[in-house]
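One-letter codes give the sequence; each number marks local geometry. A record appears below:


***
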Amino acid sequence: MKHNKLKVYAFALILSVLIPIAFKGFDIRFNVGAVTLSEVVFPQLNVNGGSPIKGVDISSIIAIEKAGVVFRDTNGVPQDIFLTLKQNGINYIRARVWNDPKDASGKTYGGGNNDAVVAAEIGKRAAQYGMKLLVDFHYSDFWADPGKQNPPKAWKSFTLLQKENAIYSFTLDTLKTINDAGADIGMVQVGNETNYSMCGLSGMNNLAAMMKAGSRAVREFDESILIAVHFTDPQNTSTITWYASELNRLSLDYDVFMTSYYSFWHGTIANLKSVLSGISSSYGKYVMVAEMSHPYTNTGGDGFGHAVTASSSGVTMRYSVSEQGQVDMMKDVYSVLAEITATGGKGGGIGAFYWEPAWLGVMGLNSQQRISLWESYGSGWATKWAGEFDDEARQYGTGGSSYQNQALFAYNGRPLDSLSFFKYVRSVNEPIWTDPVITTPPVTTTTPPVTTTTPPVTTTPPPVTTTTPPVTTTTPPVTTTTPPVTTTTPPVTTTTPPVTTTTPPVTTTTPPVTTTTPPVMPPPPLHPNIIFFNDTIKPICTRGLYFQQGDYNWQLPAFIIRSGGELIFAVNDKSIPNIVKRMVINFDVDKNEPFNTLDAAGKEYISQEQ
């Protein structure tokens, strides 16, 4: 009897050690090729069948396959990339949707040609391997991000109400198209990196009204689909938490609050946890990282420049440039999300998406051949035809992928060892990873790769002499009212009453831009602001604005400088050498009018200084 008691005691002692290990993700390490991995274990979840969302955004995949990129298994044998992703633990695919990414003659703007038809094809292929789809609506004809939120061409002259109706109809029709193709839609994103503006309109009242139209369409289509909103710049703590409070004040119906987190741009992992845990506990929302990536190499792939390398200025490289650095970054992000638990049965961290881990180019081609592929198939970030819609595309023309060195696939199409990380992310009620049995036959691509006989394009690619990333700060306009306290202390867990003011906080935590050298390479598609400024002026943050002087309208890059105690929006008009136009601006943040419209009542004024 005593002996049996000892056995019971010993068994209980073992359980007392193993149960916390299983729940908290004790750092048991696994060596996989070039990387060392360890588990991240989430508490039991009530979304995605109880499993953390382990996602990748491969929106460019159809275009780059048509251009001739071949993906392989670990042995170098050609294999459907969707099968490779499934074998490495991926359970969710994200695909962006643009309204009409082509000109009147049908020439593609590039960037993956991501209209509803392309998204439907991606969703169909994902479903064949049991992976869900996140539909990422940009509500634009091309890239929508903090630097620009241009309305689709067809909606350019629409009023707010007309845009609401158009968003509702486009969302509903697109979801039907994707669903009919056989996709398993699990989540819908109403807007992409919508920092204070969307579809050509600014102000949280406008933003919420348009998001409500998209949300209503999703609920009508399928109430079980999660609705997500997507902001960015979590390093600006008070600003991003203000966005969440405004959505609460305006009673937006949504489930998931998402932010981008590129560790080299967006602050510390501790700050990310503080921001997301505060939003989750305050408003009972699920929280996620919608986009993340990290470089594993500094060397080139398709001859196009990189968004970030170890030598880039204006970034903080918190992890090594290596496959292990990719793993360490992803582990920190998922660990933070696993530690954000539900409050009262609501909210909590549920997963993340790696942005464009397979955006590769065809190797072994000269510059003219690469340009021909980018323009023929839209497999680069932009084509020359995108210039009619996008200022940066007009300035720089055709370009490839600036995120190749942040991929989870080598340039020859083989998966990197860092892709294996996703196998070791699970919930506490899931077993340790075992290789899945794939019953769906691989999908084959019938489009042959382009041969080198394609006539070369006469234009030449812009020289890439710098890897300085574009500035991604999207601080809302500053007003003269007293800003809220910018403490990063998470909100208390009790329900926060709606915020009655619409004044955005002053994001005094924004670091100054330290370089005065304008970039000469096409910017990466996520954050394509290009800012030119006088060498004698040190900008503290940037934002694209519109200005008006008499009958002359400026649509130029702008930045904010400090002059004594006031903030000044400054514009450098390169067509007027050595002249910097400076304007002091004060305006109502929730006005419906564009920035260049004067308010006769005096709420908005513009004064010029020479």
User: Anything to note?
Assistant: Residues 1-26, 443-610 have pLDDT under 50 and may be disordered. The chain has eleven helices and 21 strands. The two ends are 95 Å apart (CA to CA).
